[in-house]
Amino acid sequence: MHLSKLFEKNKISSPGKTGKIKNLFLKKQIFSILYHNERKTIADLCIHVGISIPSMTRIMHELMDEGWVSELGTGESSGGRRPMLYGLNPTVRYILGIEITRKYTRINAFNLQNKAIGNTLRIDTELDNAPGTLIELKSHIDQYIEKYNLDKKNILGAGISIPGLIDKKSNISYTYPNLGQKPLDVIFEDLLKIPVYTEHDTKAMALGESWFGLARNRSDVLCLNVGSGIGLGMIINGKLYQGFSGFSGEFGHIQMVPDGELCECGKIGCLETVASGSAIVAKVKQMIESGTNSVIRKLVDDKIDNIKLPVIIKAAHHGDQFAIELIEESGDYLARGLASLIHLLNPEMIIIGGDIAAAENLILDPIKQKLNKYTIGRIRQDAGIFISELKEHAVLMGTIPVVMNRIFSDEPYGNNIQSFNKS
Predict the structure, then answer these.
(1) Which strands form 104-110's sheet, in the order they lie side by side?
(2) pLDDT tens digits, residue range 174-192?
(3) Which of 34, 166, 238, 385 is the most exposed place for a label (fewest CB within 10 A)?
(4) Count of CB atoms within 10 A of residue 8's CB?
(5) The model's pTM
(6) Mind listing the domains of the chain with CATH numbers?
(7) Burial class (CB in 10 A: 0-12, 13-18, 19+), 119
């Protein structure tokens, strides 16, 4: 029996009394320690796991024979021979990251050092066309796996982020019922034939920021994901906040304009209808078709249907006043919503991510300026406002902890979201 047995969906609830189960449990502990800390000596591992040096030496030799662990040189000596350092073989297994949005899907695979093995594949798809989307998605994933010569047996798991309302207890999507009434993990496992772990897209963003971005070592952070929609991932007291049913973070569906436009959720005047990427794109198309002069028209060769948020942001960075003003308007609305959150939650940091992050100061500055207008100064000063350093990659990077935290813990995200941070 090999270490891979530890990563099946049926987790071992306790080490048990039999030698084989205890041995596998210890290997899982060692795997977790080396994944989180990169390299350790046998003596270090003994302290963490609580077994003798001879027992640890035997297990490490087994892990090396199985290909999981490699020798990584020697450490500092405390007197006598320099100790050998051990770490995971980064290419023994891979994590497949899949970010599904309303308008496109991104795919990449990562090794056990959290490094991408290739270029991110982007597929333009419409999630509303669920049956066709799943078939198309499977085709592209299979092509990606074939392109990078990945053996499905070596994929530790696929982390999939998806928008909409996902019940955390049943793992069923209420926004996309055409996906089926089975748990999302089961639907995608049946499709891909590999272990799958799903999460709401903005919660995945918060995980990505906590493991790899600005939210590392922070305990109270709001992660705003602005793309085709608007979502909010919340880290409260160092933990990812889910809400009672897992529906927390639907920030885009607070009413902003009482007599405004109909939102996709069925309500009127939601924040998404005035501040999301989709709202900006729709307004640009309407105004350009009505004769508004903008460099955007030239960037798409007069093909209005080709206007997307990255094109508008590019025009704004080139000084196009029309594009700049629309992004600023979005920032104003976002600030109004964020002001309420600042007063309610008193966060230490707010991270602006998603596709809008590419606008950088063009979206950040108006948010900061308007927050000074809409918030109480003493509360506002606690909250640093930043553009995500991961930018649009935060959600895809967040699929790594979606997989790894579920593997290492019987709880969805363990006791603390910051468990990745190196000791």
Answers:
(1) 121-124, 104-110, 94-100, 155-162, 196-200
(2) 888 888 789 999 999 999 9
(3) 238
(4) 10
(5) 0.87
(6) 3-88 (1.10.10.10), 94-206+395-401 (3.30.420.40), 216-389 (3.30.420.40)
(7) exposed
